[in-house]
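Structure in, sequence out. Go:
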């Protein structure tokens, strides 16, 4: 069974930092792009970042460029999202996904950015 499990979310201060993690199960992790999405209340789920199977290439939404970094450690079946200089607009449930435009979702982890 394909499964992705996010963890590391919580409450963080504006201007602060947080690292999200995603553990993947049930597929050949190193063969897939992995992505992070987020969804704020009342808004559509949006693509935040993605990374190529070997971790060589990355892509980011304009709103997070220069602040967020996606990375992966294939031998651990793990993908990470390092979030720096956090803004209130970053408050959302964050999801990791197998693939980019399609694929299985994790259950999500809440990130709340507040003063």
């Amino acid at each position: 069974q394909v499964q992705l499990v996010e963890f590391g979310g919580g409450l963080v201060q504006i201007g602060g930092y947080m690292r999200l993690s995603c553990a993947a199960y049930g597929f050949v992790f190193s063969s897939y792009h992995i992505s992070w999405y987020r969804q704020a209340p009342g808004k559509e789920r949006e693509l935040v970042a993605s990374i190529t199977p070997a971790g060589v290439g990355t892509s980011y939404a304009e709103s997070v460029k220069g602040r967020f970094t996606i990375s992966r450690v294939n031998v651990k079946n793990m993908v990470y999202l390092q979030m720096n200089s956090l803004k209130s607009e970053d408050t959302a449930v964050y999801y990791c996904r197998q693939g980019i435009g399609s694929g299985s979702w994790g259950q999500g982890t809440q990130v709340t950015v507040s003063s």
